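Quick one from the shared queue. A colleague (R.T.) flagged Transcriptional regulator, XRE family protein as missing a structural entry in our internal table.

Convert sequence to structure tokens.
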Amino acid sequence: MEDLLQHFGNNIRRLRKEQGFSQEELAHKADLHRTYIGMIERAEKNITLLNIGKISKALDVEIKELF
């Protein structure tokens, strides 16, 4: 399960950086807290489906691209 969280977090970080967003900017666009984004990227949080949807919308990608 940790591999899945790490893979997911790495994808969030990669997509965020490709779009030139800081963690704070992504958090603002997704209506989430900056520390939460960091915890997801470091695989410290098991993210909910609702927040996955918020992040995919903020990054303008389909949910499947996050996995």
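Helices lie at 2-18, 23-30, 34-41, 49-59.
The radius of gyration is 10 Å.
Added to the table.
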